[in-house]
Design a protein that fits this description.
Radius of gyration: 37 Å
Distance between the termini: 55 Å
Number of strands: 21
Strand order of the largest sheet: 5-6-7-3-8-9
Shape: elongated
Helix content: 55-70%
Length: 1326
């Protein structure tokens, strides 16, 4: 959804007074609402002006631009880190002072604690501190504790906002860069990598900002603590500090080793996310080929490598956390040993001052400081990855400008260009042509010859190496693979322009969309859905065309828009739209529909990137010679010449519309605000955000997590280890208190100095203390490593189960959920479970057990402490439940508002050329910023709601500490110094760790929302089982007979019928053509056969019902070449045969049958040539042929070709169909197409109309009936072409009846050799 404006939904923080800000009262209404009901996106407050994505992004972009200019001037590589520091150092430094003050108050507290203990210790001495002074110290200590608590949560809140701003600003820059990427740069990155940058890499900024200040606060605090310790116990303190230095060095090395694995892990994550992205995008192909298991194995293998790195990294971190847990005890032990060796006398108050100073140092030096080292190291890696992306090549800003004299023109002179300069082979060479208003230039040529590249040159996407392109006028571009975004049909057509009813209706008529809109439930306000899945290929093509026409531009670049529609609609589009509506415009039409060339002002024939011939229609050779003959002639002439620059090459990245697979947005992809005309309407659909749970994360999710990670007895062992670690830890404190008091009377008698003590019986005490210390260390490390192993293993298991679950989900699931939404679970949510959850959970468990132990010891020493502890604990747990109801909803909103950010990015990459052609970059940037602002609203509430909770915790902690502090003083006469000291020191420690423990508990809850979202996807509705116990015979189907009885089919349960009352049979080995108007239900027949949704009625193949066998047993026995060409990143060989099921010879034979063998043999890597994302270094036609070869390789008894050669030139298509009939003469072949010449010599013809089988007969019989729909479709091609097709159909009919046979090889040869091509030039069209 689009964010609501700030005026409608103001942020109450802006008008809050000081007290409201300090105690976060302004959030009370939200908590009341969150407790009563589930929070919705509309409940969130508008993002603050200073946190808006546009403001933050432009600010950082300015510093980055300055850094790039400086680096260019100094001939250096620019530093993104320098730009970030220059942008944020002032505000960040201010909050750093808060961190220093916070830690300063923590260091002061042990001093006052010591003064209070000395009151109990020396109560009878003349030098004793008076009771009033003790109360004064207690007051100061309580005040220091309050000041520390306030500073602590203020620091964390504001420093996290700095991290949020940095993350938002970098995301803005990444998207801005993506809109400017050149074609060569797009070949160096992938959608998966950019999604990973936007999800996992930028999240490092949220973490590094929190801990970065401790790189200087930690050492400074250590120096101050050392000075205080020296004042207390002399030089023996240096022994403990030496231990700290050693452990810090050890920890820093471990953190650096851990973070060095991050760069390797990130590359593996990029690969995994990219592969999952391609799987989900091509899910229809994967399901029809029954490749789910193979792809599950592939992703599981990638995931295993990734988890191996993650586990190693997490183990390093776990050891560090274990050291943090035990380090203060080691330092105390070594210090007191040194003190004993030096025979120093120390008092009980000094013992506890030393202990508390080391405790104060523990957090900063052994937790925050090493964590800062780790986070900085990871952030440096992420900054380097982001910088590499930001330094990719950009498209030169050569957008067309309107000339002062108003003349519109496209002038190309001696144009030569390369997609890949390294190959030395130009994509286009020596092109020259001029097009003026009112002229139509038709560009034709074989597949892969450079036609789309010519349009890209005019767009400015293909930079010239020589020659020039002059373009004057506003451009509208129609891509070869239609680009639609999630929203309404109307919003796709308006594309940000104001809705003008008359113009709009004229465009609808010209683009033949009236009939389609009438069939939609909400007409043009019907939501298209992600990737346009609710539309047929022809409907998407016409909406794409209507968008261009509605823009009322000066120059129209049309990349083969007529191939996706049937003959009738094709003629309507050409006559009514191209020749009439665009009659006064400059129009360049790339086409394979040669019957329209007579109406073109100019004709340009391309072959291997060269201009074979150019001129007007009348200038071409005499009648009887077709365009294909001209191409063949030049090819023969070239064969006599040495190899030149015309050798076929791969483009590096040819068309964003046809290269970056769609991860369509679940929210509107545009704000309707055109740069040229701000008076626009917002006619946008507002799809809802994904559904989510309510309230706190349930116990079931925790149980699923641990059960997925290990067997129950390991969990029990883990619990026991945790208890043992805590018991040994607390026993050390108890032993220390006893050590401070035992035999104090004896030493007082010996030295006459009251309670002054030397460590009595050091062997006994030291042995026991060291034993407890070693046990604590061992238990801590075992606990850390075991818990991390369980949770990382759980993440791997849940990821694999989620993957299997979505691949078992019906196609409908992918139609209803944007790919960005699904990828969000595999990237960000899985990343949380991999990286953050194990350590956060470990930290929380350690702190929680420590708090429990501390409370237990205090109650054991002074039982009355239970009186305040119990009610305060009840208040705390009730407050926590109240807090988590709202906090959980906000975290879920944060997760759901993140998905549109990824989706919008990927949608923009898919339509990049269109966006740039329409000069819509600013609009798309605004929408991206709007999506970011919506996410920032949720993130801001995450920070402020925790601050609300923290303030109330401060009150509970303050009340608790004040009761303990003053209550202990009141009972001082009944306590010995050890008891008094241990209670006060533990109370102080309790207040220190309580905030961190609660913060970590909230973090665990936040991370478990990610686990909850993963578990949700493990419980998706599944399609029918892949395999049943009943299996068809191994040679099934041996005949290939198809039978349909009363078949009705819907793509969705509540959707309209797309196949209605189909009852028909096809004979064995029959060749059937399937035609009909676009959207008539032809592809739906394929979906029914493959059970992409379950059909009603009966479908039998060789007398076996398709619903009685498993989906894989069904789908593996039919070969299909789907309408959409789906290719994967990898080699040509891997795309043909992803799982190595065929020999090298079989692969080359398949390529030869689809006319690709020569092209691929000419490439340097041949079949090992790498294809970039979606195979975008091939033309669209070549991609279709590669997919056709993949389908042919399966060699099943039934072959279905679904409009798979629509973007291939007629002669190549003719040769392919000839080869298919030869190779599959003993198979049943169903061919769906809009090109009637392709299937005119089929034995039988199915004609579809509005979901019903209108006619099923021999083609020639249908052509004898002038009222038949097929006859009318043929007549739309023109009289000459219709005559030629009728003659071909007649000859096929005569041969079949006279010989009483189906087509054999001889007949096919006669048919093709005895008749002229269906799309010949002058004899056919004149």
């Amino acid at each position: 959804m689009l964010p609501v404006s700030p005026e409608v939904k103001p942020n109450p923080l802006q008008n809050a007074n000081f007290c409201s800000r300090l105690f976060v009262w302004w959030l009370n209404p939200l908590f009341k609402m969150g407790y009563k009901r589930k929070l919705e996106p509309d409940d969130m407050y508008s993002v603050l002006p200073e946190d808006r994505s546009q403001h933050l992004g432009e600010e950082l972009q300015g510093y980055w631009n300055q850094e790039v200019k400086r680096a260019q001037k100094d001939a250096q590589e620019p530093s993104l880190m320098k730009a970030i520091i220059k942008c944020y150092w002032k505000s960040y430094l201010i909050w750093g002072m808060f961190a220093f003050l916070e830690e300063g108050t923590r260091v002061v507290q042990p001093i006052f604690l010591g003064k209070m203990i000395s009151y109990v210790e020396n109560s009878d001495s003349t030098n004793s501190v008076t009771l009033q002074e003790a109360y004064a110290y207690a007051t100061v200590l309580s005040t220091c504790m309050l000041v520390w608590a306030v500073l602590h949560h203020l620091y964390f809140y504001h420093i996290q906002r700095v991290g949020m701003r940095l993350r938002v600003a970098v995301c803005h820059m990444i998207y801005c860069k993506a809109l400017c990427l050149s074609s060569s740069a797009m070949g160096k990155t992938t959608t998966g990598q950019i999604v990973n940058l936007l999800s996992n890499d930028v999240s490092r900024f949220d973490q590094v900002t929190v801990f970065l200040h401790y790189l200087w606060v930690g050492p400074l605090q250590a120096i101050i603590v050392t000075a205080l310790l020296w004042m207390e116990i002399g030089m023996s303190c240096l022994a403990g500090m030496a231990i700290l230095v050693v452990i810090l060095l050890l920890q820093s090395c471990i953190w650096k080793l851990s973070s060095s694995l991050w760069s390797k892990t990130a590359a593996l994550t990029d690969n995994r996310i990219q592969t999952i992205s391609e799987i989900i995008t091509g899910i229809r192909t994967i399901k029809m080929y029954a490749w789910e298991k193979s792809f599950i194995d592939l992703i599981t293998s990638l995931r295993r490598k990734e988890i191996f790195k993650i586990l190693r990294s997490s183990f390093f971190r776990g050891v560090n956390l274990a050291l943090f847990f035990a380090v203060s005890k080691i330092m105390i032990f070594v210090t007191f040993m040194a003190n004993d060796i030096l025979d120093n006398l120390i008092t009980a108050s000094q013992v506890f001052v030393v202990v508390m100073l080391f405790e104060a140092l523990r957090f900063t030096s052994t937790l925050y400081f090493p964590m800062a080292v780790e986070k900085v190291s990871e952030a440096v890696v992420s900054i380097q990855r982001i910088k590499n992306f930001l330094l990719l090549d950009e498209i030169s800003q050569c957008y067309p400008q309107l000339p002062s004299d108003g003349e519109m023109i496209v002038d190309v002179q001696d144009f030569t260009a390369f997609w890949e300069k390294e190959s030395g082979t130009p994509t286009l060479q020596g092109l020259s042509f001029t097009v003026r208003p009112g002229e139509l230039l038709a560009v034709i040529g074989p597949v892969g010859t450079g036609k789309s590249s010519l349009l890209s040159a005019v767009l400015g996407e293909l930079p010239p190496s020589q020659g020039k392109v002059s373009v004057h006028g506003r451009i509208a571009y129609v891509s070869q693979q239609p680009w639609v975004f999630s929203g309404t049909v109307r919003s796709n057509i308006l594309f940000g322009k104001k809705y003008e009813k008359e113009l709009y209706e004229e465009v609808i008529r010209a683009c033949a969309l009236e009939e389609d809109l009438q069939s939609f439930e909400d007409r043009d306000l019907t939501e298209i859905g992600d990737r346009g899945t609710t539309l047929s290929g022809g409907q998407k093509a016409r909406i794409n065309l209507a968008r261009a026409v509605y823009q009322d531009a000066d120059i129209y670049l049309l990349d083969d828009p007529l191939s996706a529609v049937d003959a009738e609609v094709s003629r309507h589009l050409f006559e009514q739209c191209i020749c009439q509506t665009l009659s006064k415009k400059i129009t360049i039409l790339v086409t394979h529909q040669l019957q329209y060339l007579e109406d073109a002002t100019q004709i340009l024939i391309l072959k291997d990137g060269r201009m074979v011939q150019k001129g007007i229609y009348a200038e071409f050779p005499k009648p009887g010679i077709d365009f294909e003959d001209i191409l063949l002639k030049t090819e023969n002439e070239k064969a006599e010449l040495p190899p030149g620059p015309g050798t076929p090459t791969l483009r590096k990245w040819s068309s964003s519309e046809s290269s970056v697979q769609s991860l369509q947005s679940s929210s509107p992809s545009l704000k309707d605000a055109a740069p040229e005309d701000k008076d626009t309407e917002n006619i946008q659909a507002i799809p809802s955000l994904e559904s989510c749970s309510i309230g706190m994360v349930g116990f079931k999710i925790y149980k699923n997590c641990f059960r997925a990670g290990a067997h129950w007895f390991i969990i029990v062992f883990l619990i026991l280890i945790n208890v043992a670690a805590q018991v040994t830890y607390i026993l050390q404190d108890w032993w220390l208190a006893d050590w401070a008091n035992e035999r104090s009377t004896i030493y007082a008698m010996v030295f006459g100095q009251g309670n002054m003590i030397v460590m009595p019986d050091p062997d006994w005490y030291l042995r026991t203390y060291s034993g407890l210390m070693v046990a604590t260390g061992l238990f801590s490390i075992t606990r850390s490593l075991l818990l991390i192993y369980v949770l990382v293993n759980s993440s791997q298991t849940l990821h694999n189960e989620m993957l299997e679950s979505i691949l078992k989900a019906p196609v409908l699931f992918f139609d209803r959920n944007p790919i960005g939404r699904i990828l969000n679970r595999f990237s960000k949510d899985t990343g949380h479970m991999d990286d953050s959850l194990p350590l956060t959970f470990l930290d929380f468990i350690q702190m929680f057990l420590f708090m429990t132990g501390v409370a237990g010891v205090m109650v054991g020493v002074i039982p009355w402490i239970a009186i305040p502890v119990i009610p305060l604990s009840i208040i705390f747990f009730l407050l926590r439940i109240y807090f988590l109801w709202t906090y959980g909803d906000i975290k879920r909103l944060e997760c759901t508002t993140r998905s549109p950010v990824f989706s919008h990015l990927a949608s923009s990459l898919q339509g990049l050329w269109s966006i740039r052609a329409y000069k819509a970059e600013q609009r798309f940037q605004e929408v991206f910023d709007a999506h970011q602002d919506l996410h920032s609203e949720a993130w801001f509430l995450l920070l402020t709601t925790f601050q609300w909770f923290a303030v109330r915790l401060d009150v509970i902690c303050a009340v608790f500490f004040i009761i303990i502090c003053f209550g202990s003083l009141m009972l001082a006469k009944t306590l010995n110094p050890g008891q008094f000291g241990i209670v006060l020191s533990l109370a102080l420690t309790f207040t220190w760790i309580f905030q961190w423990c609660v913060r970590q508990s909230a973090e665990v809850e936040k991370m478990m929302v990610s686990a909850e979202r993963v578990v949700e996807y493990m419980e998706l509705e599944k399609e029918a089982p892949w395999e049943y116990e009943y299996r068809p015979p191994l040679d099934w189907p041996h005949e290939g007979e198809l039978a349909f009885e009363d078949v009705n089919f819907r793509h969705t349960l509540d959707g309209p019928l797309v196949l209605k009352d189909l009852t028909e049979c096809t004979d064995s080995k029959e060749k059937t053509g399937i035609v009909g108007r676009t959207g008539a239900g032809k592809s739906s027949l394929v979906a029914a056969l493959f059970r992409l949704s379950e059909p009603r009625g009966g479908i039998w193949i060789d007398n076996i019902s398709i619903t009685s066998i498993g989906l894989h047993h069904l789908r593996k026995k039919m070969s299909v070449v789907p309408q959409e060409a789906v290719l994967f990143t990898g080699t040509m060989r891997k795309n043909l045969d992803p799982f190595d099921e065929h020999t090298n010879e079989e692969l080359w034979n398949a390529l030869e049958e689809v006319q690709l063998k020569e092209i691929i043999e000419s490439l340097p890597g041949k079949m090992d040539t790498e294809l970039v994302e979606s195979g975008s270094n091939l033309s669209v036609g070549q991609r279709q042929l590669l997919c056709l070869a993949r389908g042919i390789l399966r060699k099943n008894q039934i072959l279905i070709i679904d409009n798979a050669t629509s973007h291939v030139d007629p002669r190549t298509d003719e040769l392919i169909q000839k080869n298919i009939r030869e190779k599959f003469s003993q198979c049943t072949v169903l061919t769906i197409t809009h090109r009637l010449s392709t299937i005119i010599d089929s034995e039988w013809m199915m004609v579809w109309d509005s979901g019903r089988l209108d006619d099923y007969d021999e083609p020639y019989c249908m052509l004898q009936e002038r009222d038949s729909l097929f006859y009318k479709m043929v007549q739309q091609l023109g009289e000459a072409e219709a005559t030629a097709l009728t003659e071909r159909a007649k000859q096929v009919s005569l041969l079949c009846t006279s010989k009483d046979i189906t087509h054999d090889d001889h007949v096919i040869m006669n048919t093709y050799s005895g008749q002229p091509s269906a799309l010949t030039i002058f004899e056919s069209t004149m």
